[in-house]
Design brief:
- The protein has 66 residues and is an all-alpha fold.
- 55% of the residues lie in helices and 0% in strands.
- It has two helices and no strands.
- The termini are far apart.
């Protein structure tokens, strides 16, 4: 008689935790915001900025100063 109770408890616990995780994910603020085109271009532009001491458009080879 204890086996079905334990099975139901395990199922209820696991499904309850999954439901809680889904609930918290659905109510996040960043899910309601979609970046606009300008914001995506700004973020892409930040990735392309040369590091200090580098000239734009030139690649440095790893392992030495070429």
């Amino acid at each position: 008689m204890t086996r079905p109770v334990l099975d139901y408890f395990a199922l209820a616990l696991s499904h309850g935790l999954l439901a809680l995780a889904c609930w918290r994910l659905l109510w996040r603020d960043d899910l309601d915001q979609e970046p606009g085109r300008e914001q995506r271009e700004q973020e892409a532009g930040r990735d392309r900025q040369p590091a200090a001491g580098q000239r734009p458009g030139l690649r440095q080879e790893p392992g030495g100063d070429a």
